[in-house]
Amino acid sequence: MNPTEAQLDTLKEIINVGIGRAAAILNDMLSARVYLDVPEVRLWSIAELTEQIRSTGDDRLAVVSLDFRGPFTGTAHLVFPTESAIKLATILAGDDPEGQEMDSLIIGTITEVGNILINGVMGSIGNILNLRFLYSIPSYEENTLDRIMLTDGAVQDITVLLVRTRFTIKSLSIDGDMLLIYNVGSFSELLAAIDRLSPTAESGK
Amino acid sequence: MTAIETGMPQFDILDIIPDGMFVLRNDYVVQFWNRSLEDWTGIERDQIVGTPITTWFPRLGEARYASRLGAIFEGGLPIILSSQLHGSLITSFVRSNEPRIQHTTITAIPSRDGAGFDALFTIQDVTESTQRVQQYRQMRDRAFEEIEERKRVERELAEANQQLTEAASRAQALAEAAEAANAAKSEFLANMSHEIRTPMNAIVGMTAILLDTALTPAQREYIEIIQGSGDTLLSIINDILDFSKIEAGKLELEYQPLSLRDCIEESLDLVSVAAGRKGLELAYLMEDDVPEHIVGDVTRIRQILANLLSNAVKFTEAGEIVIRVQLAAPDNERNRATDHEHKTLHILVRDTGIGIHPDHSARLFQSFSQIDASTTRKYGGTGLGLAISKQLCELMGGDMWVESRPGIGSEFHFTFLARVDSQATPDSIHTRHLKSTLAGKRALIVDDNATNRLILQRYAESWNMQTDMAADGQQTLGILANSDAFDLAILDMQMPQMDGRTLAGEIRRSHSLPLILLTSQGLDPDPEGDDIFAARLNKPIKPAALSAALLHVLGGEQAASRRVATKDSSFDAQLGQTHPLRILLAEDSRINQRVTLLTLEKLGYHAAVAANGLEVLEALSQQTYDLILMDVQMPEMDGIEATRAIRALWPAERQPRIVALTANVLAGSENQYVAAGMDGYISKPVRLEELIDSLRSTPPLADAPATEAESPTSSSESLAGQIDLSQLETLYAMTGYDGEYIQELMDIFTSDAAQMLSDLRVSAAKGDARATERLAHTLKSSSQLVGAMRLGEQCQELESLAAGGQLADALQRIDSIEAHYDAARKELQGRLSEMAEVSPDMQRTG
Known about the structure:
Chain A is α+β, with helices and mostly antiparallel strands. Chain A contains six helices and eight strands. The two termini of chain A are 25 Å apart.
């Protein structure tokens, strides 16, 4: 079943709130200001998604994943193109990240950033839609998107919710793409929850 | 509190986990504190549980943690606090004073009171693992650096190696180039020497011939200038060649017995005229302990002396030039003699010339160096002479040096190692006779030159004579007025105030004692004139000449016969009669042919000429020669090859003496000539004396003059009846009795046959059976054609043997064939003459 325009708009609004909270936390952590664009929110088939990501030319990605269970079950993936991940991690950890090597620096830092962003969005969904989930501990991996999706046991015709935003740190001339992918078995519960919210959502407009 | 108490047992399991764990309620009050944390922080669980965590660790109260922790208390969302971004949240100084690195994961546990969540902090201490990782990484980096360093070193090594290889190959290439250049230089010198010597031969030879003709005084003077210049040019060429040979290490010394005295006197002779013209006194003094007879390279010793003497004459305007010969002092560092047989001789040549500034004396012995360029202009010369002389001394185990004072004069010293020639017989009988005649006799020595007086005194005293000295005419007359006990007086011609001749006249007024005149060569105004002098001596004073003169004066011996023979520089036109020789001159250059032929004619010889080696072989097959003067470099077949062929092919009794004429005097050439079978060589330009020596030392062959009919292998009887007349008649008829035509045929036959005989010898000597067979066959056919049937048979036999590969006695057979051929040729000629006479009619009709 395809979401309506109204449903998508509501969802976009909810996610935007979560992204905003995450951005605030990141701003706190950095002395520089991080801008996160208003996210683009779409539903994709995995085939479409894979094609889309391949077209960016970024084969290898840094991915932070968070499994959740509850009214609906799925995994939230935060996907950084490697280039962006390295830039961001370097900025966050400072010039001399205690002499640590790049790999562990990126893993530690990107995992935390991913944790913040996913928590922002998931927290926003949970709070606003009044849904309660159980979460696993976030994990980090570097891989191609295909493999990430396959290790989830996902099938090709499954639909994903793609949240795409762009981060910019103007003072440091750094920008990059961030993809938040919700791989959920069914959107019906989500859409139902949005529908239950509708009067509030409409009043919010 | 109850909730905590009841909850506590649930958490006990967390005590055994090595990670630090604690539980916070949403008001930050600590609900649990595990044992690991007690260990890390020293804070007991009882102390901290129930109190706000921020009182212990204020950092957790910061706003950024509040906003993060809200997510867990409200929504149960897990939180990651990375070590990279947070360091250590819970201050802990386990094991060291270093702050710990902690990785914190905060997960939600349902709150006891049912509302929201408590936060379970799980703190992993990653300090050690991080350090291990860092150490590993550093090790890895170091290893990496080492590998990089090693790679760099290897790269540098490889580069250095490459450079070394390149340098080596460059050096190799340079060395090869240098070697090639050196070879090219030697080649060039050899060629240049040849190219220069060939025309020089003509110049020197023709000049000598010209001087022997009737000339006006002016013409004679001009030609003598040409001759002098030619000699000079030759000596320069010789210098350059010597120098090249020494440089190339190719100069070899020739050791032979020699008389040191003769060597010195000959050297002095070379400069005596020039010294006389400048009014310079020449003298030499040889110490008594110097062995006169030694074994050494006389040519080189004379070369050194001649060089030093000519320099001395060149650079001295007035005074004297004295040679002094002595043994090197035993303790002298230059004395290299190691036993009694060997002596280091020390010769010095002293002059009273311009001298050499000490600064310049080192440069003196360097090649191409005169003291300065202006010296070269004033005095000429290549500047090679001293360099060569010094190197020659070193080759002979000695040295050369100079001691000089500008304006006073120079002393050139040289030493060389010589072996005493114990074989030489001392002139004991002569010496005894000399001493018995001269002993006790009293001589008055008159010379203004102290050196000459000393030398004359030395010699006279060595023969046990008594001597008195006078330095001028007045003193002499004074001495004579007071004493008449003198047996003779030796007067120097050139003296200031009163010269020797005037003094002699004065002496004659009152004394009759014999007088000996001492004069420089060329300066005796009237050499044969009056008989006021009993004897004349040329300076430098030579003991042999002096003793001869003294014996003549005191003992009545004929001094004239003892007069030192002048070099045989004039042509002996009678030589050809007194010592007849059949000479073949092999020379391709027409000019040189002419020069040598003319020279030989002057000596009374008529020589045959061949222009190359092949012509030599041909000429030799026609006639016997006693001497072949063989140019080495000729077209077609050179002199070496021709000599080898002659030595291989001709019978012993017909072997001529072969003397090379060569312009190539580089080292090694002589050996090559000898190896080829030559008996000697004359270097071009041909010097008359050398040529005469060669002629004189050539014995005529025993069978001289060989007639062509005579053959060493067959008697004349067996050679008769060579021609089958019927065959000859047939041939004559075939030509229509044309006498001229048949004569032409015969000429062709004889020249072809001669050629074929010569070729036969070559092919037989080479062991070339096929060529021998073919040549024998051809000669057989043409022999039979002209009716020389016996000759044909001989050829047939050789042909058959050669066809069977048997060449063992081929050369003897060829001798026999040649004998038959000679006989056949004569007979043929005779028959043809007869036929021409008997058939004039036929001739006309034909």
